[in-house]
């Protein structure tokens, strides 16, 4: 799970970094292109209206003539109509003597006379507190007084230019924005396709059982082949280490239990030869406690390992409970205890880890004999529609309600107990690994521990397990 989480985080990080980087590049490009589009739109609008303005100035120049020795203007209505569709238009016609013969007296242009005589001159200016574009040209009239050159000045406000600039620029910027968004979406889709192999590797690892440490089956892309190879190498080393740990636990179990059993046998022999049997009884009890503790510690390690990788098989609960009871009760006890077994009337076969269940039930029976049963101990199997319970009942004092939760924690002992504090914890962990629970029922004179296991939705799967 840690490996799959690492892969998921790595994939998300790379995808986010690439999307952010590409998004930033697209954003910068969009801003640059938008500025360029605005400049282009402004230039195009200016050139278009400059041509209209220059053409209007030329038309005005062509419509001036001499009449009775005076310069006269016949205003071109078509030119004025075109120029004044969205803007204000101002003009001035001056005869060779500098007398304004038509238009606005205060309209002027700052341009050399020689430039006006060569062609139309365009200038930016301010007229009556408004930004205007000015076109000026000079025309020579035959028979006119002075040098014969008349000056024509035509000015137009910039509203139509600005409107055309905004129209052209907004369309171009909208197109740039749409293309940028499409490019980012396409990049996201491409990244999804690019990272699809990592997603499949993640899915393969997530779907594995915890004990499956075989190499990743799918062939990774060349870019992540080294990463997948490193993961495979790590899983191989982890598998070897787990195998060594399991072998050590099995060897330790055998090596510890054998000398402890031999020591116990030696104590039995010494009992008949010593004059102080009480001391030997204490020694025997200590050795028995040590053997029990060693066994429970190793069993606890085994249960924890099996809980991570449960091996469920079809298990007959009646047969299992009867077998464990017969093996867990010692041949001799320090008191008379009636042992009984009550199986379920119906056959109870569920998918379970039989080894873990045996250890859990054995610990419950040992606890009942050591700390509970005065004269009676009974193991029964009870089945309901949704669960099966293995019940260990005794006529002992039971466990106080306030102490029950604490005894399910490893190494927590009851008052006056000389045990290891692992028996009930092991049984509780086994119950939880099977999706069940360990429950205490009873009072001071009638107490039972119930190992409840769910059986719903399992019957259909037993045909290939049994």
Automatic annotation (TrEMBL):
<dbReference type="InterPro" id="IPR050428">
    <property type="entry name" value="TCS_sensor_his_kinase"/>
</dbReference>
<feature type="domain" description="Histidine kinase">
    <location>
        <begin position="251"/>
        <end position="457"/>
    </location>
</feature>
<dbReference type="Pfam" id="PF08521">
    <property type="entry name" value="2CSK_N"/>
</dbReference>
<dbReference type="InterPro" id="IPR003660">
    <property type="entry name" value="HAMP_dom"/>
</dbReference>
<dbReference type="Pfam" id="PF00512">
    <property type="entry name" value="HisKA"/>
</dbReference>
<dbReference type="InterPro" id="IPR013727">
    <property type="entry name" value="2CSK_N"/>
</dbReference>
<keyword id="KW-0902">Two-component regulatory system</keyword>
<dbReference type="GO" id="GO:0000155">
    <property type="term" value="F:phosphorelay sensor kinase activity"/>
</dbReference>
<dbReference type="Pfam" id="PF02518">
    <property type="entry name" value="HATPase_c"/>
</dbReference>
<feature type="transmembrane region" description="Helical">
    <location>
        <begin position="172"/>
        <end position="195"/>
    </location>
</feature>
<keyword id="KW-0597">Phosphoprotein</keyword>
<keyword id="KW-0472">Membrane</keyword>
<keyword id="KW-0812">Transmembrane</keyword>
<feature type="transmembrane region" description="Helical">
    <location>
        <begin position="18"/>
        <end position="41"/>
    </location>
</feature>
<feature type="domain" description="HAMP">
    <location>
        <begin position="192"/>
        <end position="243"/>
    </location>
</feature>
<keyword id="KW-0418">Kinase</keyword>
<keyword id="KW-1133">Transmembrane helix</keyword>
<keyword id="KW-0808">Transferase</keyword>
<dbReference type="InterPro" id="IPR004358">
    <property type="entry name" value="Sig_transdc_His_kin-like_C"/>
</dbReference>
<dbReference type="InterPro" id="IPR036890">
    <property type="entry name" value="HATPase_C_sf"/>
</dbReference>
<protein>
    <recommendedName>
        <fullName>histidine kinase</fullName>
        <ecNumber>2.7.13.3</ecNumber>
    </recommendedName>
</protein>
<dbReference type="GO" id="GO:0005886">
    <property type="term" value="C:plasma membrane"/>
</dbReference>
<dbReference type="InterPro" id="IPR036097">
    <property type="entry name" value="HisK_dim/P_sf"/>
</dbReference>
<dbReference type="InterPro" id="IPR003594">
    <property type="entry name" value="HATPase_dom"/>
</dbReference>
<dbReference type="InterPro" id="IPR005467">
    <property type="entry name" value="His_kinase_dom"/>
</dbReference>
<dbReference type="InterPro" id="IPR003661">
    <property type="entry name" value="HisK_dim/P_dom"/>
</dbReference>
